[in-house]
């Protein structure tokens, strides 16, 4: 098989957060596959065919991309943030695992991107300076009971927690349930950040404590960070406080 397939991370929003390798791969592609708003972020040029699709059809999209690569096309599957974090890289390899044996001879590459939690952390200071974990609150592909179990384990392990997919129109209550669970297990003064649309024109950052935060402000474009017992605010003169999770654990302030 002579075609190739690259799964490309576009970062969380602005073009200056797209890595140069992604730009080069997109410039060489014959076919773009992905969720339409991500496809729209790639500049048009002669010879580039766009195959935009709805958000919920990842596995169909992956199979289509693999089939085109098998026909000799140079295919780029575009993904927001990093393609390996709750995104298209897993969908493509799931399709490879279950699909045509010949797909295993394809040249498949994953081009990394800036993930939402990295972009949010960069805006906030250094909240991910020590051990952290990422949990998606979407229960489309896993039972809610496993989300609760992981939230409990993350609180028990005193990790900083990055919550992806905190809410959608179909599941407005999950973020409230997650906060109720965490409020039972963690100190009320734990710092929390709601990082919305990081890097985009409508970016909004909201800081609070776990006790006082309003989880209802989280939407599909929000990354929620919940601190560990070591995470603290550092007052900034004339501005929003920074967030710090220091590198050393258990030393105190
Ligand atoms: C399906 S996940 C995709 C994650 C993506 N692959 C990444 O690495 O960031 C979508 C979730 O990522 C988060 N997200 C993506 N872009 C964001 C941004 N610019 N600002 C804040 N959160 C973002 C939100 O939690 C959103 O619901």
Please count the beta strands (DSSP E, at least 2 residues each): 13
Listing every helix as H and every strand as E from the N terminus to the C terminus, the arrangement reads EHEHEHEHEHEEHEHEEEEE
Distance between the termini: 59 Å
For the residues shown, what is the average pLDDT?
96
Stretches where pLDDT falls below 50 for ≥5 residues? none
Q: Compute the CA-based radius of gyration.
A: 20 Å
Oligomer: single chain
Q: How many separate helices?
A: 7
Bound molecules: S-adenosylmethionine
Helix content: 25-40%
Strand order of the largest sheet: 3-2-4-1-5
Features:
alpha/beta, 28% helix, 25% strand, 253 residues, 5-stranded mixed beta sheet, 5-stranded parallel beta sheet, binds S-adenosylmethionine
Task: Outline the secondary-structure elements.
Blueprint: E1 4-9, H1 20-28, E2 31-35, H2 36-39, E3 49-53, H3 58-70, E4 74-79, H4 88-98, E5 107-111, H5 116-124, E6 125-126, E7 132-136, H6 144-156, E8 160-164, H7 174-185, E9 191-196, E10 204-209, E11 222-226, E12 232-234, E13 242-244
Parallel strand pairs: 1-4, 1-5, 2-3, 2-4, 6-13, 7-8
Antiparallel strand pairs: 8-11, 9-10, 9-11, 12-13
Helix pairs in contact: 3-4, 6-7
Structure explained in plain terms:
The protein is α/β, with parallel strands linked by helices and 253 residues long. The protein has seven helices and 13 strands. The strands form three sheets. Strands 3-2-4-1-5 form a five-stranded parallel sheet, with helices on both faces. Helix 3 crosses helix 4 and helix 6 packs parallel to helix 7. The protein is elongated. The model has no long low-confidence stretch (mean pLDDT 96). The site of S-adenosylmethionine (SAM) has 25 residues, from helix 5, strand 9 and strand 11.
């Amino acid at each position: 098989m002579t075609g190739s397939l690259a799964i490309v991370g576009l970062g969380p929003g602005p073009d200056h957060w797209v890595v140069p390798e992604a730009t080069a791969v997109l410039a060489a592609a014959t076919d773009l596959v992905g969720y339409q708003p991500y496809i729209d972020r790639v500049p048009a040029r002669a010879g580039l065919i766009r195959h935009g699709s709805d958000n919920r059809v990842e596995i169909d999209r992956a199979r289509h991309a693999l089939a085109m690569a098998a026909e000799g096309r140079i295919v780029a599957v575009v993904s927001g943030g990093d393609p390996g974090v709750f995104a298209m890289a897993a969908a493509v390899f799931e399709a490879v695992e279950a699909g045509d044996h010949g797909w295993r001879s394809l040249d498949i590459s994953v081009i990394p991107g800036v993930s939402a939690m990295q972009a949010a952390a960069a805006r906030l200071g250094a909240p991910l300076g020590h051990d952290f974990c990422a949990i998606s609150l979407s229960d489309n592909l896993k039972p809610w009971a496993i989300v609760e179990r992981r939230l409990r384990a993350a609180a028990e392990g005193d990790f900083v927690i990055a919550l992806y997919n905190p809410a959608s129109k179909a599941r407005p209550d999950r973020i409230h349930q997650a906060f109720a669970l965490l409020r039972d297990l963690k100190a009320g003064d734990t710092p929390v950040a709601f990082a919305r649309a990081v890097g985009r024109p409508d970016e909004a950052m909201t800081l609070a404590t776990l006790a006082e935060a309003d989880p209802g402000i989280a939407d599909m474009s929000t990354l929620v960070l919940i601190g560990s017992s070591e995470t603290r605010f550092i007052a900034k003169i004339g501005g929003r406080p920074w967030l710090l999770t220091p590198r050393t654990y258990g030393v105190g302030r």
